Q: What sequence folds into this?
């Protein structure tokens, strides 16, 4: 019996496995190198084998990995302070292990707020078509993609879907407690929301004392050039969720909120959440990324990356309609969706990792620290793939 015969068939795995990595490059068992424009689906913010992170992990592993939240965890306290300071928001943090868990926490917090802050309880949460918020039962139902709901009913009630932000505003009623959205939809096509519409939504919600929940699981941790893309939009959410890039590969999630006193003892928790290993690593990763951002190199490299994608749009008008997204979270929209898998598989064979989003979008999520040299090498390989399609 093959080893993969013991695994549930939940993933359509590409025909490659990696054994090591360095910076923004991965290597397979045959020492073939792959430029990484995927970063573990936006997780590996510092790429691979960062010496400072490895030193931090090793140092913490020699001391203590986990004790549970029954006891004080100093790195967790430092990590919460760092995340709040980087956000610029007056918030507190709850630590968990993934984006889905962070969003689940946000939903629970919103529900408690709706059941305690008003004379008539409010519980409905409006989300936007093609959103993706996780795979737990609640976050799956919050995900406004009907095809992902098959076979898993019954779901918890209280989720309402809007086609866009304008419709979301119109759907707010006496039972609504929050609107939850991604400012750039990750799985739903790298679609970026309009800043003015988002600001209008924020205004309406604040007037009604309702909540704005921003899912920054994929957009956060400098992927937009700012620590949070919410900062680029100039908004102040009531709840923000983070995960992916926080610890560059170590599982961690955070739900941060300005509702500091809604959750009380026993309302929520996580056995592994915010343990010594994850928060010590997160602290180091964020310290490195903050310094990198402050140096100006991040915005320079984002512009270089953006210009390269624009080049492909202009050079291959028969292949691409446009580019979507922002910063280091972008997608090239194909005219013919049948070419999507071919481009992804051909890129893999040519030593380049790219992702898909929706039915016709090639998604690019490189490590935040990717160098211009690595970008050039990767885009040269990408162009070779495109030339073979013409």
A:
């Amino acid at each position: 019996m093959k080893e993969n015969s013991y695994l549930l068939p939940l993933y359509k795995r590409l025909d490659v496995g990696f054994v090591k990595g360095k910076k923004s490059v991965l290597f397979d068992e045959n020492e073939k190198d792959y430029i990484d424009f995927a970063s573990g689906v936006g997780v590996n913010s510092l790429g691979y084998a960062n010496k400072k992170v490895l030193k931090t992990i090793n140092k913490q592993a020699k001391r203590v990995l986990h004790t549970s939240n029954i006891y004080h965890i100093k790195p967790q306290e430092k990590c919460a302070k760092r995340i709040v300071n980087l956000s610029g928001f007056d918030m507190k943090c709850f630590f968990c292990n993934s984006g889905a868990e962070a969003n689940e926490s946000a939903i629970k917090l919103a529900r408690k707020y709706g059941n305690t802050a008003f004379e008539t309880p409010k519980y409905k949460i409006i989300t936007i078509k093609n959103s993706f918020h996780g795979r737990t039962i609640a976050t799956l139902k919050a995900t406004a993609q009907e095809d992902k709901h098959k076979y898993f009913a019954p779901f918890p009630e209280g989720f309402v879907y809007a086609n866009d932000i304008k419709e979301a505003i119109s759907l707010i009623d006496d039972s609504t407690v929050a609107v939850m959205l991604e400012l750039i939809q990750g799985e739903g096509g790298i679609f970026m929301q309009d800043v003015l519409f988002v600001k209008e939504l924020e205004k309406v919600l604040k007037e009604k004392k309702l909540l704005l929940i921003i899912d920054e699981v994929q957009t956060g941790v400098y992927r937009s050039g700012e620590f949070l893309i919410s900062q680029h939009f100039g908004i102040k959410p009531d709840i923000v969720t983070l995960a992916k890039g926080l610890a560059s590969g170590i599982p961690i999630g955070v739900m941060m909120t300005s509702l500091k006193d809604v959750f009380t003892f026993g309302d929520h928790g996580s056995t592994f959440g915010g343990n010594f290993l994850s928060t010590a690593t997160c602290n180091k990763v964020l310290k490195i990324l903050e310094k990198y951002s402050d140096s100006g190199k991040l915005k320079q490299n984002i512009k270089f990356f953006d210009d390269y994608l624009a080049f492909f749009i202009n050079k291959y008008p028969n292949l691409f309609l446009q580019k979507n997204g922002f910063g280091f979270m972008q997608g090239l929209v194909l005219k013919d969706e049948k070419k999507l898998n071919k481009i992804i598989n051909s890129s893999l064979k040519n030593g380049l990792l790219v992702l898909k989003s929706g039915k016709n979008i090639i998604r690019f999520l490189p490590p935040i620290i990717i160098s211009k040299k690595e970008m050039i090498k990767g885009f040269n390989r990408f162009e070779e793939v495109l030339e073979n399609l013409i």
Notes: The chain is about 35% helix and 20% strand. The mean pLDDT is 97.
